Amino acid sequence: MRLTVIGTGYLGAVHAACMADIGHEVLGVDIDSAKIAALGEGRVPFFEPGLQDVLGRTVASGRLRFTTSLDEAADFGDVHFVCVSTPQRPDSPAADLGAVDAVIDGLAPRLRRRCLIVGKSTVPAGTTARLTARVQELAPEGTDVEVAWNPEFLREGFAVQDTLRPDRLVAGIQSRRADETLREVYAPMLRAGVPYISTDPATAELVKVAANSFLATKISFINAMAEVCDATGGDVTTLAEALGHDTRIGRRFLSAGLGFGGGCLPKDIRAFTARADELGVGSAVSFLREIDEINARQRRRTVDIARDMAGGGFDGRRIAVLGATFKPDSDDIRDSPALAVAAAIHREGADVRLHDPEGMDNARAVLPLLDYVPDVAKACEGADLVLHLTEWTEYRRIDPAALAAVTRARKILDARNALDAALWRSAGWTLRALGRPTPP
Ligand code: NAD
What we know:
Layout: E1 2-6, H1 12-21, E2 25-29, H2 33-40, H3 51-61, E3 64-67, H4 70-76, E4 79-82, H5 98-107, E5 115-119, H6 127-138, E6 145-149, H7 159-164, E7 169-172, H8 176-185, H9 187-191, E8 196-199, H10 201-232, H11 236-244, H12 265-278, H13 287-309, E9 318-322, H14 337-347, E10 351-355, H15 360-366, E11 371-372, H16 376-380, E12 385-388, H17 393-396, H18 400-404, E13 411-414, H19 421-426, E14 430-433
Parallel strand pairs: 1-2, 1-4, 2-3, 4-5, 5-6, 7-8, 9-10, 9-12, 10-11, 12-13, 13-14
Nicotinamide-adenine-dinucleotide (NAD) binds near residues 7 and 10.
């Protein structure tokens, strides 16, 4: 089939490359000409494990090309996947659908051939219905075009495997033909047994925001338990392990720490509350505001504990920060808890020396005043305190005894509960963590 993928960021670039990899002819489209130039040469302009291989081979095969031209896209596609950003609006918790609307307004009048427009971006319930009316208004008379929604669940860091072998596919469709078209697009996945849920567009749109709301709730739940553990002397990691053995609860997403961030969870739960308010059911999901507040509190708690460990203030203190990205195995720093903490302690006068394996260029672009150090030991040189804020594997492999030789003090705050506390303490470090007791 001939597919276009409009919006070639963290989601779209992966989708385009993987669709070409399973045999489709794919045209990637973006308004960012630098990104399109890089992708067209087979170069991934961001960090995503495994993507370089898939992109390189599909561009080389000729099945994957890139353009900035919507005319070319309209001429080419049987199916147009819309993968543009839907960030939070600057002035409200609601989603900014400006990019989605711009794609529809640009594409629809150019359509001449029968096609299906399939949204993958995360959008408020009701968007497909609204866009369907818009497409009908704008597409040339007699053009056979429909809109469907097929939300995306990939995780950055695992995006390629999540696209090629998703846990499930959800198709919000308005006709049998749209259903058949999507089944054809995803035929190799369906043959491999991936569950395919065909439903109405509103349900499909809701599945995505409901899934993210549930995940955010699980994280904030265990972080709330961490706060209670701190007040009682309990250990949240043992609590999570014991809870996780209950198969009704499960262990995943019960890691207490600095909380969630990134370009999805925070803005998606806010957009959900805003949309629910519009629909008159705001009170049904008002608990999500508390989930968001618990999440924000972990950043403040981390700064408070760090300040305490630094001796009551950051002025004149050298603080090594390990981690800038919102999660490991990504260079994404959107709404990153690690970067929020680094910025807060810098504002309070700390001399911040920050290391991240992949996120330093992106972090420098938004926080140019921090000191970026491309080597862990150098970042920790002379440090009064080390903050472990993103759980990269590389940080778990640090030898605490060797690091102690370069820091001024042996003090570390593990805000991700990911380090081997006993190992660090046996090397003479004072290690504190969120929701775990510190031995005297
Ligand atoms: P992104 O910012 O990395 O990519 C968006 C791309 O769209 C950018 O390259 C941008 O230049 C392009 N764009 C913006 N306006 C455009 C236009 N008018 N025409 C063509 N291109 C345009 O964002 P992302 O992380 O890829 O997220 C995209 C959508 O996917 C969002 O709705 C997000 O919530 C959803 N999503 C993201 C992930 C993820 O892990 N990143 C997972 C699931 C769903």
